[in-house]
Design a protein that fits this description.
This is DUF4062 domain-containing protein. The chain has one domain: Rossmann fold (3-Layer(aba) Sandwich). Strand 1, helix 1 and strand 2 form a beta-alpha-beta unit. It contains seven helices and seven strands. It has about 200 residues and is an alpha/beta fold.
Length: about 200
């Protein structure tokens, strides 16, 4: 008899899609192969309340999931509502709710961060403009800095790991390593719910 999806651990995979749907599907497939329920808006596995906005539905999915996997890519995403980015809001909420969370960060983001730190006068990144393009969005640096808790003393930071990847197989290695031990994930989920 098949296990009902309501008894499966729900792992939400953040809503980063633009130029990434095949890779996103592969990540969801790996997570599902271990017996989890992969919640993802693009994949259509996220419950949608038609009376709510896209942002509200995505944030509700963060509330409803047991754990969260965020992906930081060079594109800020198309889910921007009045200056609010859905993917970033999902990440912030997962961290605020103290859900077990993991982050993948594309190498282009970490490379650009180092590049701009060396090119832009110290403290003046807000005044540095990059022409709008489909190659890189500077706002992703803010997302990355938020996730790694930049500005907090390094020696006391926790929950600030963001695994760099460039190719899909690198991302999948990290996903497999984190999620293959379902008992460990169950223990983390239980611990987070008891806080």
């Amino acid at each position: 008899m098949a296990k009902s999806s309501s008894s499966k651990i729900k792992i939400m995979i953040g809503s980063t899609v633009y130029g990434f749907p095949d890779q996103l599907a592969a990540i969801c497939d790996v997570i599902e192969s271990y017996g989890y329920e992969a919640i993802n808006s693009h994949r259509g596995t996220m419950r949608v309340d038609p009376t709510l906005s896209n942002l509200e539905n995505c944030l509700q999915a963060v509330h409803d999931c047991d754990a969260f996997l965020g992906i930081i890519r060079p594109y800020y995403g198309s889910g921007n509502i009045n200056g609010v980015n859905i993917t970033f809001e999902e990440m912030k909420l997962a961290m605020k709710l103290k859900k077990p969370y993991w982050f993948l960060v594309h190498r282009d983001v970490t490379f650009a961060r180092q590049l701009f730190r060396n090119l832009v006068p110290k403290g003046d990144i807000e005044n540095y403009e990059l022409k709008k393009n489909h190659i890189f969005d500077m706002r992703t640096l803010e997302v990355y800095d938020y996730v790694i808790k930049n500005g907090e003393p390094l020696e006391t930071r926790t929950g600030n790991w963001a695994q760099e990847f460039y190719k899909l197989d690198e991302a999948l290695t990290y996903v497999r390593t984190q999620f293959q031990d379902i008992d460990s994930i169950k223990e983390m989920v239980t611990r987070s719910k008891n806080k």
